[in-house]
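Figure S7 source data.
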Amino acid sequence: MDQQLKKTVHDNMASYIDRLSSLVRIPSISFDNFDQKYVLDSAEAVKKMFEEAGLKNIQFLTPESGRHTVYGESLTSPDKPTILLYAHHDVQPPMREHLWNTKPFEATLSADGERLYGRGTADDKAGIITHLAALELVRASKKDQGPNLKFIIEGEEESGSAGFAQILKEHAALLKCDAVIVADLGNFARGTPSITTTLRGMSAVSVELKATKAPLHSGSWSGPIPDVGQVLCRIIANLTDGKGNILIPHFEDGLVPPTAEELASYKSLGMTEEIFRNDGGVLSETKLLVPEDEILLANWRRPSITVTAMEVGNRKNAGNVLQDSAYARIGIRLAPGMDADRCTDLLVDFIKQQVPFGITCEITTEDGANPFVTDTSHPFFKLMSESMATAYESPTKFIGCGASIPGAELFRNTFGNIPILLTGLEDPECNAHGENESLYLPDFERGILAEALFFEGLS
Ligand SMILES: [Zn+2]
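Tokens for the predicted zinc ion complex:
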């Protein structure tokens, strides 16, 4: 490895942490019920960092919501490959503030100096600094011989990326590239460099059943009239076999099974039931739905259905009442190969067919996201995998992810079948989206070095 480069990254760490901390200080929560001034402030702060890094053609790409995505570029030569670098500058709300051990919007080092606490440290402000640091490093060592780099830092990823498709469509020529690095995922474990090659998709429906005009005295009226609470529970119970296997006909049509290579890679990760239970806080009495060797498959490569909310009357006013309505929001996670719109339609039809006794059933759907699967045969995957292995001094793992990033599929739809490299600095302890979010600094350093080595490899 390039020892000088390694030393430079190490020597610059204080400056990288400083810059990251200045972004963490801005509470750029992109949810509508929070003050959107801060999202604009963080867009300005990113723009300023772009200017300081010498990027050109800096501009805001602004969707209908008004939350700016920040663009900038550092072009070298038309003969060199062009890499589009994605991260996002908005964050999740702090959630339950009293559970934070430090101030959520004040980046704070842990006592051992290994983790940096604060909202957005891992998800995803570290991604912004990683891209900028790698740019500075490759320009310092390779001058104009490095790849062309285009930066796209989104402003509303956490609130659903509603305007991102529009941005990609309107600016497809500006953003044109040979590959994308999406630095918004993470490593399988601390010190284990990982490239995510599959994501699950998602969708959700809300169901409301109604049988009477108003709630009734259960003593005076129950018996002849169907109870909507029980009816809704039966409908939900019919969706799976009780072990999570979905019973909706044709729901899994098109499912792409993992390749032998992927299975081997999953196996090499050494996931055990103990680690999984521990990371997820599963109660000791609770049994898992699958055996140990199927945990990752069930999470990454199979669909699942989750009741995310349910309401029949409410706990505070629970009395002897025959309720007039019952509500549930049902979320689905889709495995690679499945289609979000098709599966949502199948779910809606299946629920409607189950409704008995002429009960009124209203179903509303939400915009879904398709699953994502990438072909890793492109040489860029090999180069990234080698760069990460060198930086981390540990073999790179190809992993899956049970969650969804709509952007990955949007990049695919915009640019066709180019390599989309999903990297990032989350780890199982980082608690992204929860309280006490943190970034593991040794991997922050290795991640920057890996991306710089990747750019050098393209030079
Ligand atoms: Zn993120």
